[in-house]
Amino acid sequence: MTVENNAFVYIEMVDGESPRFPAYVPDDRRSACEVVEPRFTYETAQTVAAWNNALVEQDDDNPFLGFARNGNILEFTKESPIFPTVIYEQDGDGRYALGAGRWAWQIDSSRAPEGRVDV
Known about the structure:
Elements: E1 7-13, E2 16-17, E3 21-23, E4 35-36, H1 42-58, E5 64-67, E6 73-76, E7 86-88, E8 105-107
Antiparallel strand pairs: 1-2, 1-3, 1-8, 4-8, 5-6, 6-7
């Protein structure tokens, strides 16, 4: 079953906020503290990776995201620049849970009220 995007998500940062990214956020991946675990299409995951990797140039404490030939997305850190610390595989809907449980993704309720969003 294919799922549609139902939210725009972002990360609040010390010097502002990240861009908004369209995502699917399952109801069971929302928490009381408003941190969510979004699922991104491959195309959006590429956009998230480009934004994230630009941050690495400013602060190498951020993880670096790379892409494997098999479609997996690989997360590297400065402590492990050769071997990925996390491998993101497609879920059953063909989406990727970048930063799931570790990145502080939040829903932008001003851009994506209830219902679906178009991408």
